[in-house]
Design brief:
By secondary structure, the chain is an alpha/beta fold. It is built from 17 helices and 13 strands.
């Protein structure tokens, strides 16, 4: 079976067999299929699509291309969460300890930032001493002893996806729903969790700009999970504006700590309770979502989630003093307001502009391996539906220098559309797919 025949079959709109997909992915993993051939195949998939069975087969083939974790000897049921990415999305920092504190071990491998969306590992590494790189043995021990681990993705997990992900970025094939879904789910399946909740974001600050796109991606990933025998549901949440008010690594950690003490932004807490409720139902902890929300809220309110967060951070080398006094986290030397150019109601916020601004300040990466400044970022003072007076702050810029802050002011102002009519923000959660 030649790779070129598989490429031609998909180019002409054919349905690939399981054997053909396995052959292609195995060949690519072991360098028997060239980068040029894989690029041609990815473009054929982008243009012709894949059905549910093909997409599931592709995902399973990529998951099998490397190591696969089995955690059942350390925990009978483990849970995980994945977000498709958005501005100010620090849900993992709050959700994971709440869920773990109700007795559901969280075994999570996360990424670093690339592009306009922040990465969970970068946020955690703003805590001095935190170690995201872990051996498989240490990962398993943390699941058993702490009930919560968040580690950098191992190079041994789904190596075929790692190569294909980089190739898609260079060949204009990033937008393919089957390829996006297979990329996400191959890593999740290889990481071993039994129950997975997917936070699929849509809006100006997300990769999926429309509800229809987000729904299709969510349905595809849930279908893959079911094919693989995992318990999966997807929450489609809005990303029409930043989640919470902090955007930037240390700023988001500080906001998550505030939330764990009961003082977090309402939208952040509400979304975490919604996502967590899905995991309590998927795992069989409770029968109904409302029961799950109540249980999670009680756990947050009691301080149990905060205590578990501290154990998790210190177990991975993090400095407890930064948790006890969040002002000890990295702080930018310059904090300047961005004034509203005129009075009115905020009717839209372009989250991508804000995310790229944080990158330009040094808080993100344009290329893999770029150094980041954990202290820089934004705190958003006005949200959609708020009335703002002329000259009042829309945002505070946290920057390394006055020059950096001044350079970004115009871009930030352009991200806010201010009008005369009252508006109602989009609902935080559009729908849940199970």
């Amino acid at each position: 079976m030649r790779a070129v025949d598989i490429i031609v079959k998909k180019r002409d709109g054919g349905e690939l067999t399981t054997a053909e997909i396995d052959t292609l992915i195995e060949g690519y993993t072991h360098n028997r299929v060239s980068e040029e051939q894989m690029a041609a195949w990815a473009m054929a998939v982008l243009l012709r699509g894949m059905n549910e069975r093909e997409t599931a087969d592709l995902t399973l083939a990529m998951a099998r291309s490397g190591a696969q974790l089995d955690l059942h000897d350390v925990a009978p049921v483990t849970v995980d969460k994945h977000s498709t990415g958005g501005i100010g999305d620090k849900t993992s920092l709050l959700l994971a300890p709440i869920v773990a504190a109700v007795g559901l071990p969280v075994a999570k491998m996360s990424g670093r930032a690339l592009g306009f969306s922040g990465g969970t590992i970068d946020k955690l590494e703003s805590i001095a001493g935190f170690q995201a790189e872990m051996s498989s043995a240490d990962f398993r021990s943390a699941v058993r002893d702490i009930g919560l681990v968040i580690a950098a993705q191992s190079i041994d997990l789904a190596p075929a996806d790692k190569r294909l992900y980089a190739l898609r970025d260079l060949t204009g094939t990033v937008e393919s729903i089957p390829l996006i879904a297979a990329s996400v789910m191959s890593k999740k399946l290889a990481a071993g969790a039994d129950c997975i909740v997917l936070d699929v974001k849509c809006g100006r600050g997300a990769f999926m700009q429309t509800l229809d796109e987000a729904r299709l991606l969510a349905q595809t990933m849930v279908s893959i999970g079911h094919h693989a025998g995992r318990r999966v549901s997807a929450v489609i949440s809005t990303m029409e504006q930043p989640l919470g008010r902090a955007v930037g690594n240390a700023l988001e950690v500080r906001e998550a700590i505030e939330a764990l003490h009961g003082h977090g932004p309402a939208d952040l807490v509400d979304l975490c309770l919604t996502l967590g409720a899905e995991l309590t139902v998927l795992s069989g902890k409770v029968a109904e979502r409302t029961q799950g929300r109540d249980l999670l809220y009680e756990t947050l309110d009691s301080g149990l989630a905060w205590n578990l967060f501290c154990r998790f951070i210190t177990n991975q080398g993090g400095d407890q003093r930064m948790l006890d006094d969040a002002s000890a986290l990295p702080c930018a030397p310059v904090v300047l307001p961005v004034p509203a150019p005129h009075a009115g109601v905020v009717i839209a916020i372009d989250g991508m502009v804000l995310g790229r601004t944080v990158n330009a300040l040094g808080g993100g990466r344009l290329h893999k391996g770029d150094a980041i400044d954990p202290a820089v970022g934004l705190t958003v003072e006005t949200k959609i539906g708020d009335y703002v007076e002329s000259g009042k702050p829309l945002v505070f810029i946290h920057a390394a220098s006055v020059q950096d802050a001044e350079r970004e002011k115009v871009a930030i102002q352009s991200a806010f559309t201010i009008g005369d009519q009252a508006v109602v923000p989009s609902p935080l959660v559009h729908e849940i797919i199970a």
